[in-house]
Amino acid sequence: MSAGAGDINWKKFYTACQNGDLNTVQLLLPTLNSDQLNKHGANKSTALHVASCHGYSGIVELLLQHPDIDHTLKDLEGRTPFKSALDDQIKQLFLKVAKCGTEDDYNRFIAKVDIEWHDTYPNAYRIAKDNHDFMEKWLTKIPLKKLLTEIQVGYLDPMKAELWELMKSDDHYADLAKYLREALDKNNPLPLIKMYTVETNFYRILNADLAKLGSDFRFTKSNAFLDKNYRDDIPPKGQGQYLLAAILINHDIFQSHHFTGKAYRGMKISSRQFSKYSIGSSIITRSFHSTSKDYNTARDFAKRVSSTPGGMAGRLQVLFIYHIKNPRTGLDIIEWSKHPDEEEILIAPFSAFKIIGVKRNHGSPSEIEFEECEA
């Protein structure tokens, strides 16, 4: 198809979405590429924006089912198609698509119980700061493209076999590679957020890899970097999980999305694990923690019990409450997430918190309250 014909088809398609002409949308949808499907029209609105704000449910549902439609683009007023929805019926269509995938496969808000997600130290703040200072140096001395290339070659590509074993398909790897390629092509790290939130097992693998060393990361890696051939202007090999974390924590493009305030996370832990959390002790996160700004969202996740073999049935339902004070600790990813209703906040690895409250409840989730440590 010529460029002129493609442009004509896009205009017809966009107008059909504005006017609620489902038949024309169905006819033209297969003829448009990804760039055309997500092209901005008036007020920077995409076709999904205009169908959503006019309340054309049939068109919205059809577009949401298309793999090339980007739900996260903003119009001139800074609204995503979800935020532009005419009413709750249209919003429910977005939530229906966002909830596709099984809870056990994709629930970022409930932590796996066989991995230690926290370290406990009396001088937690100092250790956390040392780790963050160590990772920040990568962004000051190494160009972003070199960091992204090492994440691709040294981390994502070797992960392909593991993703295949989990899903018996290369689809997840293809989705992740697409976002990483977009980041490389644009020299922009924003697509890394989509890698984290897209419905694959990537976030599970990434967080498990980060948690393996936990807050011992800096000391272990510092010794490895004492090798005489080490150069601090070249990305370290085999450290893709830490390079990705360093970018999300430190790159300037994320500054306007830093978050301070209260965030919540649903957990399933044993009574023995619960007893280890005592008021006054300090912990350091070992990985990214998906939390929500919405209390009810996190509480509902905590109340859901897995019935799968080796699942979390019989464990305590616990709500973790975090008071985030350092802007770089919290990253508001709502506008990029395909789960906008969850109001997701990412808590960075190697963040230090002091336990300020422990409440054991019966009939409702127990609560553990954390306040971020300060210098």
Automatic annotation (TrEMBL):
Q: What class of enzyme is it?
A: transferase
Which Enzyme Commission numbers does its entry carry? 2.4.2.31
Keyword Cell membrane listed: no
Q: Which UniProt keywords apply?
A: Glycosyltransferase, NAD, NADP, Nucleotidyltransferase, Transferase
Q: Is the Endoplasmic reticulum keyword given for this protein?
A: no
Pfam families this protein is in? Ank_2 (PF12796), ART (PF01129)
Output the superkingdom of the source species: Eukaryota
Report a single Gene Ontology molecular function.
Answer: NAD+-protein-arginine ADP-ribosyltransferase activity
Q: Which InterPro entries does the entry link to?
A: Ankyrin_rpt (IPR002110), Ankyrin_rpt-contain_sf (IPR036770), ART (IPR000768)
Reaction equation(s) it catalyzes = L-arginyl-[protein] + NAD(+) = N(omega)-(ADP-D-ribosyl)-L-arginyl-[protein] + nicotinamide + H(+)
Question: Into which family does the record put it?
Answer: Belongs to the Arg-specific ADP-ribosyltransferase family.
Output this protein's name: NAD(P)(+)--arginine ADP-ribosyltransferase
Source organism per entry reads Adineta ricciae (Rotifer)
